[in-house]
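Structure ticket #2291
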Amino acid sequence: MFGKVRVIAWREYVGAVRTRGFLIGLILMPVLIGSGLMVQYFSRRIVDLTPRRVAVLDRTPEQQLLPLLLRSNERRNTTLFDASGKQIRPTFDFEPIDPTQDLSRTRLEVSDRIRKGDLVAFLEIGPKVLDPDPGYTPPSTVDPEAKHTDPFDLIEQTQDPDTLMYYSTSRPTFVELKQFIQQSLQPRVVAARLKQSETTLDEVMRLFGTLLVPRGLAWQDSNGHVVFEPRHNELVTVLLPVILTTLMLVVVLIGASPLTTNIIEEKTATDRGSTFG
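Resolution: structure written out below.
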């Protein structure tokens, strides 16, 4: 019985290998993969150089962090060119927002500007970022041991919101801007906090924790209250297009070979029929 199965399997394998569709697929596969790699290589320098406009609401006393962010941005703008003088990365344009304006209205207006494409992101710096209250206790309803699918939920529930920096955007996959803000401001914030604390290892680790918390854009509900959209899952936002593209490629590669084989066989049979007819 096993010998018959082996003979049939071998016959089917040889028949499939000798078909024109298999040979064409065997040749086209490395060609397609190589073409994709070449396109990726030659298009690596194709970058959208449109300036990224960011609204900044610094609520710290006398807006202490805004000048630091602007100076860091000026230094960054000198590194955006290659050896030939060609710009290779987009510039950031930070627009200060008056902190004396109504906070809810400011959040709503800036969020609308992001939706319209006038701004890329909105950075809100809490008033106590540099001077957190050591006696702050989270609400009694918070359970630090509870499991959270969103890691930022626990941060918002256990830390004073006025000690955080909130980052809102409609383009969560553009991480360069968020990383620049974090790298520019966090050392200054940590240094200010260390001056007023009796430093321990646990305290240092807490001070170096996440300060920049993503937040959805603001909108006005039916009661006239300014609320925020649910936070984007950045991991899903980044991985989902990659997974879908990979699945589409697999489907095309799997379905192309049998389809090509059927077309060739049908064409061959038609040609034979017309010849003998």
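Closing remark: The chain has a mean pLDDT of 79.
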